[in-house]
Amino acid sequence: MNEIQDPGGGAELRRARIRAAALGAGAAAYSLGILGEAVLGWPLDPRTAMLSELAARDRWHRGLFQWTDMASAGCYLVAACASRPGDSDPPGLLSASLAAFGAATIGDALSPLDYPVSFDDPGSPRRAERPEGSGTSASHGRHYVTTALASAASMGLVASYWREFGRQPGASARRRLAAPAVLGLLAASAASLVSPKLHPGTVQRLYTLGFSALCVDFARRDLARSNPASSDPAHAVAPR
Asked: Which residue of 2, 6, 85, 231 is 20 to 30 Å from 70, comparing CA positions?
């Protein structure tokens, strides 16, 4: 751990500000679906319906959520490009995770579902509503692949968060518990697909909000980096 130094003057400060803006905007856009479904009054049960159902082909305003995902993904890619190899421990994990997450999220947006994904869940009471002969399009199948890739990439970002914030001496309880909690929600989200009684939609939304919160904390770190007068010791240093 070394104190942040910027012998070149403004280059690192500009990168930090770009990362902060991109991560903050990306996290906000990634969570907009949760707000949007409430504002638009879609007839989805948030306890069992997954967020990807907002962009299923049978939704007339699915394009809005596809573009929101695209905007979010673009922000994560910008943040990855503005990162340097030493911005995570091990080197490159954070930037690689951001890039992979952004790319996979673009793939998600470009692979709309043919019908609500909850129709596929083994324990879903809506499984019988699945259209006959459905689920054969390449787009529908790709959505499962891109979602799995995005989840894997998010684990890299959560690991980077833990190594940078959670394990540091004097870290707050919130930061020590944040990464394990988000990983727990991701695991619970996968496990909950076997039964609607486990409320997979609710778990997924909690995971989405938790993941976005970690990204915002990274943005706060970068804002502190761009302000040498910052007094927050948790943000005044950066791992090499």
From this structure: 85
